[in-house]
Amino acid sequence: MLAYIVRRLWQMLPTMLGVVVLVFVLFNWVGGDPAYILAGKMANADSIANIRRQLGVDQPYYVQLWIFIKQIVTFDFGLSWATSEPVSNIIATRLGPSLTVLVPLTVLETLIGIALALAVAFVRGSLTDRAVMIACTVGMSVSILVYIIVFQYGLAYKLGLFPVQGWDGLRYAVLPILIGLAVSLAPTLRLFRSFVLDEVGQDYVRTARAKGLSERRVMWVHVLRNAAIPILTYVMSNLPALLIGAFLLERFFGIPGIGREVILAVERSDFPVIKAITVYVAAATMVANLLTDLLYQAVDPRVKLS
Amino acid sequence: MMVHGAWRRLRADRMAMVSLGVVLAFLLMVALSASGLIVADWEDEVGVNYAPPSFVGGAAVATAPAVAQQALPDNPFDPIAEDMRALRAGGVEMYGVIDPLADDLAQLRAQAGEGGAAAAARRATLPFGGDKWGHDVIKKTIKGSETSIVVGLVAALLAVGLGTLFGALSGYCGGVVDDFFNWFYSIFTAIPSVLMILAVAAVLQQKGVLTIVLILGLTGWTGPYRLIRAEYLKHKAREYVLAADAIGASHWRKMFGHIFPNVSHVALVQMSILVVGFIKAEVILSFLGFGVPVGVVSWGSMLNEAQNELILGRWWQLTAAAVAMALLVTAFSLFTDALRDALDPKVKA
Fold it and tell me: What is the pTM assigned to this prediction?
């Protein structure tokens, strides 16, 4: 087990290095000279040279890359260009609000998705099944922006059921979570249904029915345990992406989370913040993938890690 | 014949044919709009500002402009309120300096006054309402569709092209080439696509339709790459490829002359999946202001304007953009599903 984890971590290294180089090339080479962004309109040769020296941009590229790697390892990306807040501080304080929305959203989405997928699989091939699938397709085709704008206007602004904007504890997270649920349920249901339908044709399902088990037990125990693997993969691999993916909710509702921070950073050309978040989210994605593989073994004893 | 069979199955699916019809109608509309045959005059300010839809009627007309004209109430905490009032009253000492633009400004104001007089000729209602400037929302939506759909199509073409090229090289050559592209793939999939798109948008400072196409195309090739690579791995040992080898076909010819036609259905399905994804992404990018530049209209920029309009009770632009997008994306998604079913050999049995 330990040997497996160590080997997987070792295999991550080239990918992580690739991510670091990609981010470095994007921001230090394609992005142009940061001194001109920082110095702004009052640029003179002196201040530009000064900023370049402070950022280390006057050094050769390999030295700059080394500085960047040192920043990543020590969690010290210096100060935000826009607000002069330490980047590590930004990430640490924005993580809480993001997770407050994210964790309930993911748990609810997964549970409701599984329940609905199994319910739809009961009536597979029927008119209900077809109607639900078409409803999902239609629901998915409406832009997430429209959902947010309409729900925020209708439920919060017009009816006053929820706070319109702001962040002060869980009360403010309810409407964003509900909207996130409304948006994500259609694709989740479609996907989970296909996972379940992949299983119901298997021999073991026929055997379970042949020995007289109720359809309910066949679905909820036998099929679900086997469909759990692709479901787990989907949920786990989506976690880091969700951290950024909720950026529209965070922006509309003024939630001070990671996603909103990325948008603000893009608007203000605040490169250190985007660089730090990109690198760490990539690292989180890889770790999440490893955790998924470890969880497989817990869910399915047939899986051998090698 | 695979293509023939697929087309026959597709024809039999009534829903697929209806969806295809809707998609083709949209494409025709885009072609006509792009060539300037229709809605070339969308920027004409034909109606009053925020003209309501005709079927809503004139009741809203009387109130709506009145609200717009109302001055903002004085803010008691405004620190420069006193100065502003002094300025408005015209009691500002000019210290003998003559405003060099005064004449030009006066001329412009006079012209604006004439424009205002002409506005009386503007229509009070429009078929589906007007926007802030009095543009016809229907024409604006058609023009916006053009931008969004063209971006989606071209970006998907670029992404599938890149994915196919990389996947073909990777799967066909194997060895070091395969390792390299797999490494490249793992890097791009480690970064969530939303973050990737935003990072590239932050770096490429200039806004424009070409920029969005590049952002989406250069970050979206991973899906097609994985599937095309798997197909090439499967096909390169097949007999027809060995036969092509025997008659002396070059590697390039085997890759794209012989194998590609047999795996092109994968590229086609990926293409239609990506078009839908990219249209949605363009709408979000443009909404956030990282997408189309000022002066270009897309569904995203329309939704951006519509967000503030909705609070004033002007729902028509939001509805128009949302319905147009939902209609196209639904039709495209249903058609993609049907296409995948029709091309999937598993369903044939």
Answer: 0.83
